[in-house]
């Protein structure tokens, strides 16, 4: 059973508007203005997150954020009262009594991440640190129709949450990609709306066991649920949660997936492209600088992180990497054009010519390197996972050739992205978690 909490919105009220980023290695600046209390709390929360189990002292928090010690003390006191932070011990100081060290409480909140691919759905439950504590995977045909797909995704989410009764936090106000309201949940599945617009949603009981640890298993405690993030192939409109002509499935054009799932589940929902979600997860997880995440699975796309921030573009159009035409009058592509990198790459894979597929992928990667001057290229997706060394070697060879022609000292490095098969689903969960830590890039 999933219950919506209308009285204790501790997590979401802490950071209702955040724009800055704090990392464990980069100094950040806070602002000592009452109107930016949420901004400052996000800075502190992100430093607590990146500090991990060892924690961080209030003095270090003040030094890293530029906030006054008094402001840090007020913020951390509030976070402790709300159960988001706790004492992690003491650390020796240069004078006076030992410093108290604080850490984030990972189990204080959770988010669900959904990777909706063309032929299957993977659902994960993660805590505030991004650690996966539950997982499910099931076949699901994206071409089966909106009703079937929405019900299939909702059923997997409910089954994953079926072992516990987490408190679902209704986000006050909207941010990019957030569900507009929690109104309109299906009759028989949810109660009447509360005064604040939240809803007590009754999840379907039962559900088959997941592939990994379920929330109901011993040792897994589920706290506040911030909502559900859904990542799937584009193109789509992240801000409105509306799909466009998904490559190979044009019938999805104009479908409001975010609002449909929010009504069905009774919780906030965010929707983004699979490549963006994976790239966001990598950035939040510590991949710094500027990089391109290239995802080759049932399709081909890219997620772009520039200067540590995810870049979606004004219309969520950034990263439509697979549909750059590299062969005029080439083979037809599912997007309706001809000679796209996706068509050439997937065609080579279908013929069993992985070296050619890697060469084509490398040509596209070289275009990105030339346009954006990125630091590295990360590869992911089930096709890459089936032969990672061949794809890394093939893409790297093309980039090395480009570097030699330009007289560069070294080629842009290429490697497989961490996260494996769960990378997109984990990134989808970050669509809900990242704003809590001031990581709501666009």
Features:
442 residues; alpha/beta; disordered N terminus; single chain; 21% strand
In this structure, how is the largest beta sheet organized?
5 strands, mixed
Shape label:
globular
Approximately how much beta-strand content do the residues carry?
15-25%
Average pLDDT value? 81
Cα-atom radius of gyration = 22 Å
By DSSP, the count of extended strands is 19
Distance between the termini: 34 Å
Please tally the helical runs, counting DSSP H or I stretches of 4 or more residues. 12
Identify the quaternary structure here.
single chain
How does this model look, in words?
The chain is an alpha/beta fold and 442 residues long. Helices cover 32% and strands 21% of the residues. It has twelve helices and 19 strands. The chain has helices at residues 10-14, 37-51, 58-65, 69-81, 146-161, 257-265, 274-284, 341-350, 354-372, 382-386, 388-406, 423-433; strands spanning 3-5, 56-57, 85-91, 99-104, 109-116, 120-127, 132-139, 167-169, 190-193, 199-201, 224-232, 236-237, 242-243, 269-273, 291-296, 300-306, 309-310, 376-380, 414-416. The strands form six sheets. It has a five-stranded mixed sheet with strand order 7-6-5-11-14. A five-stranded mixed sheet has the order 17-16-15-18-19, with helices on both faces. Strands 2-4-3 form a three-stranded antiparallel sheet. A hairpin with a 3-residue loop joins strand 5 (109-116) and strand 6 (120-127). The longest helix is centred in the last third of the chain and has 19 residues, at 354-372. Mean pLDDT is 81; it is low at 1-9, 12-36 and 163-221.
């Amino acid at each position: 059973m999933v219950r919506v909490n209308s009285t204790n919105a501790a997590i979401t009220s802490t950071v209702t508007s955040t724009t800055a980023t704090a990392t464990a290695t980069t100094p950040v600046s806070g602002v000592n203005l009452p109107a930016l209390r949420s901004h400052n709390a996000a800075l502190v929360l992100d430093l607590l997150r990146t500090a991990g189990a060892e924690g961080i002292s209030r003095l270090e928090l003040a030094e890293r954020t530029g906030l006054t010690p008094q402001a840090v003390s007020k913020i951390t006191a509030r976070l402790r009262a709300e159960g988001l932070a706790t004492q992690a011990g003491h650390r020796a100081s240069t004078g006076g009594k030992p410093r108290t060290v604080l850490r984030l409480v990972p189990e204080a909140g959770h988010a669900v991440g959904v990777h909706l691919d063309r032929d299957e759905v993977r659902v994960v439950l993660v805590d505030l640190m991004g650690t996966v504590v539950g997982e499910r995977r099931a076949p699901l045909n994206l071409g089966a129709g909106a009703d079937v797909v929405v019900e299939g995704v909702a059923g997997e989410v409910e089954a994953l949450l079926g072992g516990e009764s987490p408190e679902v936090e209704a986000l006050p106000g909207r941010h990019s990609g957030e569900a507009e309201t929690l109104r309109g949940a299906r009759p028989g599945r949810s109660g009447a709306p509360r005064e604040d617009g939240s809803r007590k949603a009754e999840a379907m009981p039962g559900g088959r066991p997941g592939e990994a640890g379920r929330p109901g298993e011993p040792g897994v405690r589920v706290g506040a649920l911030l909502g559900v993030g859904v990542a799937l192939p584009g193109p789509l409109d992240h801000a409105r949660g509306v799909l466009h002509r998904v490559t190979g499935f044009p019938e999805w054009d104009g479908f409001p997936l975010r609002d449909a799932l929010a009504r069905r589940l009774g919780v906030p929902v965010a929707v983004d492209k699979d490549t963006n979600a994976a790239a966001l997860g990598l950035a939040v997880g510590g991949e710094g600088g500027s990089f391109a995440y290239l995802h080759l699975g049932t399709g081909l796309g890219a997620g772009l992180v520039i200067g540590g921030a995810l870049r979606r573009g004004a219309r969520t159009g950034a990263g439509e990497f697979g549909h750059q035409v590299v062969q005029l009058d080439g083979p037809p592509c599912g997007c309706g054009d001809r000679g796209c990198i996706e068509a050439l790459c997937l065609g080579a894979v279908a013929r069993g010519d992985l070296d050619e597929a890697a060469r084509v992928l490398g040509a596209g990667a070289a275009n990105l390197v030339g346009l954006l001057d990125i630091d590295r290229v990360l590869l992911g997706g089930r096709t890459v996972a089936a032969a990672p060394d061949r794809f890394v070697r093939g893409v790297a060879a093309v980039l090395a050739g480009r570097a030699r022609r330009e007289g560069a000292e070294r080629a842009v490095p290429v490697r497989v992205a961490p996260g494996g098969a769960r990378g997109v689903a984990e990134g989808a969960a970050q669509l809900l978690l990242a704003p809590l830590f001031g990581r709501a890039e666009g």
